[in-house]
Design goal:
Blueprint lengths: L3 H6 L2 H9 L5 H19 L2 E4 L1 H16 L10 E5 L7 H8 L3 E6 L13 E2 L2 E2 L15 H8 L5 E6 L5 H7 L2 E4 L15 E6 L2 H12 L12 E4 L10 H15 L5 E4 L8 H9 L4 H20 L2 E5 L22 H5 L3 E8 L5 E8 L4 H11 L10 H7 L1
Parallel strand pairs: 2-3, 2-6, 9-10, 9-11
Antiparallel strand pairs: 1-3, 4-5, 6-8, 7-8, 7-12, 11-13, 12-13
Helix pairs in contact: 3-4, 5-8, 8-13, 10-11
Length: 394
């Protein structure tokens, strides 16, 4: 087995390089992931089940393929699988074909949980690795927690209103929702698209290559222009959250080729249209709202290459729930419009609460979005912890 600290520090691409070069076997990597998860997940509760026998069998198949001379892009990479998907979903089958090894099912909310903000297991709620009193967000709660805790470098999720981006933001990792329709939707409304939780933007890009077969997009013949908006025109965003995300964006712009501009964005609150579409009964009012927002976004993307917002309008809530706050306020507009969106760690508020920075690109510009994330690098200095975190999350 690998030394556990070394394993937890490796990206998915680091692991694949070592397995393909024969420096370590996929079986050793998977044994390490399983041992680390068995050791630490009792308190974290990111997984609802471990598939040890199946994982070891899959790792043996990867090792056999490498021995035959095949070079798999994600050889031997252990992944967590969102429990509501299972290993046979489209994206998980594509990842397995690229060499990934599913090691277990990650937690999702209980049925009927309002706004999908929890991870539930038979041992209790999933814990946010950045602060045990905080919810990890949802609904891809266990996937975000498992990646943030170093149990796996990649985990799959799905995003119908922000269910990849919100837990990624609150757990301090990267969450990527591709353009709607690029991968098969997970609901009849077309709102819910597969996505990934990762610690590095290079790993998120590797996910897109494996799951969708996309390696590069057309070059952008200019410095990307970024429109900053803390509210999208309607959200009640906390000032500390907005300030933290904005500082992260300007910090990125000093090293990445961005040109950041404040720009008025005046979307209509998507809540009624999203609810109507999800219920399967969209009426003319929903259609008019979606059309108005799409027209505004089309005009924005004629002028700008990216839109930047905080990922959520408020910091993580506790395990008692969000109350009246809408965690999805800044994310679900882009499930309705179908634009690709990604959240990066943006650091913490003065009270120590984790904040995400959301970047949104025009339809089909998924690689531009990931290139921007690669240019940005990791913007958070490390874990959020300490007494203030626990106090504010209760």
């Amino acid at each position: 087995m690998l030394e556990e600290r070394l394993y937890a520090s490796l990206s998915a691409l680091d692991i694949a390089e070592r397995v393909n070069d024969g420096r370590v076997s996929a079986r050793d990597v998977v044994d390490t992931a399983l041992a680390l998860t068995a050791e630490r997940d009792g308190a974290l509760r990111a997984f609802t089940a471990l598939w040890a026998d199946a994982a070891r069998a899959s790792a043996a198949e990867v090792d056999a393929a490498v021995a035959r001379g095949l070079r798999l892009p994600l050889a031997g990479v252990p992944i967590g699988v969102k429990a509501s998907e299972g290993p046979d979903s489209f994206q998980n089958r594509r990842l397995a074909a690229a060499g990934c090894v599913p090691i277990g099912a990650t937690s999702v909310p209980r049925a009927g949980t309002p706004w999908q903000t929890y991870g539930s297991t038979d041992r209790g709620p999933t814990v946010n690795p950045l602060g045990p009193a905080w919810s990890p967000g949802g609904s891809s709660a266990g996937s975000a927690a498992a990646v943030a805790a170093g149990l796996v470098p990649l985990a799959t999720g799905s995003d119908g209103a922000g269910s990849v981006r919100i837990p990624a933001a609150w757990c301090g990792v990267i969450g990527f929702k591709p353009t709607n329709g690029l991968l098969p939707s997970r609901d009849r409304s077309g709102l819910n698209t597969p996505g990934v939780l990762a610690r590095t933007p290079h790993d998120a890009a590797a996910y897109l290559r494996a799951a969708a077969g996309i390696t590069a997009g057309p070059p952008l013949p200019r410095t990307p222009r970024v429109a900053w908006t803390p509210t999208l025109g309607f959200a009640a965003t906390d000032p500390d959250v907005a300030d933290t995300a904005r500082r992260a964006l300007h910090r990125i712009s000093r090293t990445a080729p961005f040109r950041v501009l404040d720009h008025p964005v005046a979307l209509r609150d998507p809540a009624p249209a999203w609810t109507a579409l999800r219920s399967g009964a969209p009426g003319p009012d929903a259609g008019r709202l979606v059309a108005a927002n799409n027209e505004h976004l089309h005009a924005l993307f004629d002028e700008f290459d990216l839109i930047a917002t905080p990922t959520t309008p408020h910091p993580p809530h506790g395990h008692d729930g969000p109350g009246t706050r809408m965690s999805v306020a800044l994310t679900w507009a882009f499930n309705l419009s179908g634009h690709p969106a990604l959240t990066l760690p943006a650091g913490a508020t003065p009270a120590g609460e984790p904040v995400g920075l959301q970047l949104v690109a025009r339809h089909g510009a998924d690689t531009l979005l990931l290139d921007a994330a690669v240019g940005a690098g990791r913007t958070t200095p490390g874990r959020v912890s300490g007494p203030s975190a626990g106090k504010r999350a209760t």
